[in-house]
Amino acid sequence: NAGVTQTPKFQVLKTGQSMTLQCAQDMNHNSMYWYRQDPGMGLRLIYYSASEGTTDKGEVPNGYNVSRLNKREFSLRLESAAPSQTSVYFCASSELVRNEQFFGPGTRLTVL
Amino acid sequence: GQQVMQIPQYQHVQEGEDFTTYCNSSTTLSNIQWYKQRPGGHPVFLIQLVKSGEVKKQKRLTFQFGEAKKNSSLHITATQTTDVGTYFCAGTGGAQKLVFGQGTRLTINP
Questions:
Q1: Mean pLDDT across A83-110
Q2: Cα dihedral angle (B7, B10, B15, B16), rounded to 10 degrees?
């Protein structure tokens, strides 16, 4: 089992460009999450999907959109990238919202 | 909203010394989880505590959940270089979303 996979691993964007971060899990988990990690800020929840067909905002949703494509896949879209979105993005999944989370390897995004 | 504060932000120890990180929530938690992130890696789940006053051990690591379910601690006895990394607590409250603390970065002098 691959667990949680994310693509791409690295990305450099110019201000105003758009991109989609992809995430997939093969553990048949119901819940999936997108976090961003900045130095000294811990992990901040952007959006999550408690179950297939639902999505909810987290702590820092502005500037992002998500799609729960099916039970396996949860994508994060930046419509118009800004330098403040330079960060490391982690996708995670869990059986249920209250259970342990399994994280992907992360995407390092730089916006110039 | 729910906030989880973690201290200290950084800790540097000599190999063999003990290490403790503390986690405090602004609201009562239904459970608390601990994760470890190695440098350049992703967070990895260590343990979950659910009951008031619960204490769990994993080899040299001891995890505690406070009686009021608003605080928690992780204690490492006799640190080793393999313990290097950032330790995060994360709590679930009434909103049923996991909220992470800022993490404690542990470095060790061999």
A1: 94
A2: -10
Q: CA of A89: which chain B residue's CA is closest? A: B42
Query: What Cα–Cα distance (Å) separates residue B75 from each residue in A21, B10, B17, B23?
Result: 36, 15, 11, 12
Q: Is B100 on the interface with A (CB under 8 A)?
A: yes
**What is the Cα–Cα distance from A61 to A49, expressed in whole angstroms?**
13
pLDDT per residue as tens digits for the range B61-102: 999 999 999 999 999 999 999 999 999 999 987 666 788 999
Whole-angstrom distance, CA of residue B106 vs CA of residue A52: 37
Alpha carbon distance B24, B102 (integer Å)? 11
Q: Per-residue confidence at A33, pLDDT binned at 50, 70, 90?
A: very high
H or E element that contains B12: strand B10-14
Q: What share of chain B is helix, strand, coil (3-state, %, to 5)?
A: 5, 55, 40
Provide, rounded to the nearest whole percent, the portion of chain A with pLDDT above 70: 100
Is the pLDDT score of A85 beyond 90? yes
Mutate to test the interface with A, among B3, B25, B97 (most CBs of A within 10 A): B97
